[in-house]
Structure formats: C-alpha cells, structure tokens
TrEMBL record:
Name of the protein this chain belongs to: Proteasome-domain-containing protein
One of the protein's GO biological processes: proteolysis involved in protein catabolic process
Lineage, top ranks: Eukaryota, Fungi, Dikarya, Basidiomycota, Agaricomycotina
A Pfam cross-reference name: Proteasome
Major localization listed first in the record, in broad terms: nucleus
Function, as annotated: The proteasome is a multicatalytic proteinase complex which is characterized by its ability to cleave peptides with Arg, Phe, Tyr, Leu, and Glu adjacent to the leaving group at neutral or slightly basic pH. The proteasome has an ATP-dependent proteolytic activity.
Amino acid sequence: MEAISHAGTVLGVLAKDGVVLAAEKKVTGKLLDLTSAKEGGYGGSGEKIFLLNSNVVAGVAGITADANSLVNFARQAAQKHLFLYNEDIPVELLAQRLCDLKQGYTQYGGLRPFGVSLLYAGYDPHYEFQLYHSDPSGNYSGWKATCIGANSGTAQSLLKQEYNEDMGVEDAVGLVLRVMSKTMDSTTLGSEKLEFATLTVDPITKAPKAKIYKPAEIDALLQKHDLGKKDEDAEMRTV
C-alpha cells in the first residue's frame, strides 16, 4: 500500500456513454527511447495504462514489474474466456479473476503480495460501462469516479464536488484533465508526464472501442482544453 501511495496518480471517471482513464507517468528522462510509444500499436508507454481485452482497459499504480505480471495473467484469462464462450469476458469477472490471484499471495508464507492497485475501465452488454478498483489484498469495488496513487485524497474531494452522473464522455475528459492538472506534481501537463485512454462503444457495430492515446494526441487534447504547455517563445515575441 505504501508503494501505491507514492506511485503516479491514476484517475477513472464513468460517463453515461463511456469511461475515461488518465495516469501520471513517473519514469521520465531525456535519454529514454520513446519511439515505440509514438509509433507503436495502441499508444501509451506501457508504464501505466494497458489494454487487457478489447472491452477492458486498466490503469496501474504501484510496482510496475508486479503490474506487468498481473496484466499478462489478465490477458490470458480474457482470452481463455473468449475461447470457451465465444464472447468477451464480463468486466467484473475479469476483476474477480485477478483478485483471486492477488488474494492467494496474501495467505501463503514465503510470498509477498502484489504491490499494485488497478483501475479497470470496461464494457459488457449486460451491465454496460463499469469502473472497478482492486487493491493488493484482493478486495475490489465498483466506482462512478475514483483515484489511486499519490494525491488521491485531493483528487477524490475534487471529484466529489464536480462529478455528475449525467455527464458524457466529452465532459468526463474535461473533468479528468482538470483534476489531473491540480493533483499532479508537475506544474505543466504534457504527453511526457501523462497517459490517457477512453473506452466507448461504436454506435453502428455496438462493439466496445478502447483508445489509448499516443503522445501527439494527448498534447492536442491538452491544447483543446487550454491545459497544455504554453509556447514560451511565442509569448516572448508578443511581449
């Protein structure tokens, strides 16, 4: 739990037509090779936000090495379900599968628990959009909006004030970015510090559509909401 409280903030908000996840990246440096994040498949740096299945995206806070192990387990569980029943795994069932594994690691000697909390943003046709949170003990709970990681107390109080059950994805994106801008350690929001994902449903095929934003898309989104970096050179010229 201590590792989680020092980890980068992960924030999830449930809207009536989608789910929004945002995460603060802690591992940054000028010498990091981020070409795969810029040009790779789903986007994201593979540090905070992961695609578990076509209908579930997860954000992690805590020990990233532990998270990688759990993400692989969750992906296998999702594919086994798909193979057996020819349908995407229900979101809560996937959370339960992971929590069963986590709980097992709390009750045997010689093993330490997984030092990671997860936020699961998912969709299934029966319960539609859902947001779950699980912690190292194996407990999990459903939320309308929640936050894990550093400064989660501040973020929770902001979410309590501003969250509205009738909000759509666009409003939820704005809310998530506003809260992140107030809780992150960094003074400026930028793609090198932020990961972002949304889960919506295609209006025609009714299939869940997960989107993990690439760095350029995150910067464009921040500019749209007036939260991106200001062009200091341009400001100097105008002065």
